[in-house]
Prior knowledge:
With 383 residues, this protein is mainly alpha-helical. The protein has helices at residues 14-24, 28-36, 61-74, 78-87, 98-123, 131-138, 145-149, 154-168, 186-195, 212-229, 232-235, 240-268, 276-284, 287-300, 310-336, 346-352, 356-381; strands spanning 2-4, 10-12, 44-48, 52-58. A four-stranded antiparallel β-sheet has the order 1-2-4-3. Helix 1 (14-24) packs parallel to helix 3 and helix 8 crosses helix 9. The protein starts with a strand and ends with a helix.
Amino acid sequence: MTVLDAHGAEWESQADVDACLAETGVTMNQVRRWRHEGLLPEVTQQQDPYRGSTVLYPVGSCAQIRATQALFREKNRKDYVGLRLWWRGFPVSEDNWRPQLRRFARLVDRVVPFVLRLRSRVDRNEEGDTLQEKAVRHLPSSIILSRVMGRLGGEDLAIFYRVILELGLGEFESFDAPGGDEIRSRDETATIRAFDIGNAERHEILGNKLNFINVLPSALENAAKAFKIGSFAAAAEAPAEEIDKARDDARNALQIGGCLYEALKWVYGPGAFGLRLFAWFARKAPDAMINGLILSMLRLREIPNAILPSAQIAKMAKDARGVWNASQRLEWLWRNDPRFSEVLNPKRMKAAFADEIALKCWQEEIRRASMRQSDEILKDRTP
């Protein structure tokens, strides 16, 4: 329960924090150490002429204590915990995220000219392998690349690397034109498979599909423009408020995909609507992805109409969370309430989402299933 200070501002009380510590097993010494390390916000003391001073904690302190403890259990490293607390929107000191962002930005700024020189050297040997072909054999796997390498191999992987190379060098303008009877060129097909978004054009609800594949070329073109602007190190020096906004945009964008995936996968399967990779990113959030997305968002804001306004992204994330919550309730009823075992069966639900008429019939079935409980209650109460 929050308390008010002399100016009417809300705070969490010492009693709130004591209850949190008793619940989690965290000690006050740990809390003080975490605050000293910038992992928790500063407290304030309110003077009382009759009872001395009272310690007041910013609203959200208990949630931040729980999150800090959970993150330290995942990995006992301050840099790991600090970055993820900040990524989740908790107030932490800048030294828990700014140095990492700077290091990543400097690395990107060094890699781009190095790759340009390397490609120029490789291209001079017309009979040798291309840079992307060499990458297939020699580029070490990573937590992110492993997701792609599991879906592509050989020449298709080299083609995808060529797309990523053009993207990182700011050279991507469009996919190749399809040849012969092809609907899509091979580089576009490889990119769709790499990002695991093929189901975005197969799955639909009431005729509506997620438009990932159609917007993919323009999204990559805008990303290439962001890289072409250059100097990510300069972006990493932006004011904290501006970087916080880019962080929120990136986190909300991933949350949209992650929540929709969790809401739909029990109905449409593990590849639901081509959202699986987005959900994986939202769940795992590797350091490189966090820093890369934030820097990209900062640059994309400089490109007209490249991304939606922040308020619209935040609203879409909130709506996606609402869809997930509603879906969880339906899934629970399907698994646990015999009255709904048929009407909420995934196959039945997919059929219901075919058109408006099917949807109305399905909603009526749900209403009748719900009424059965009311009838049974009335029957039991009748003397």
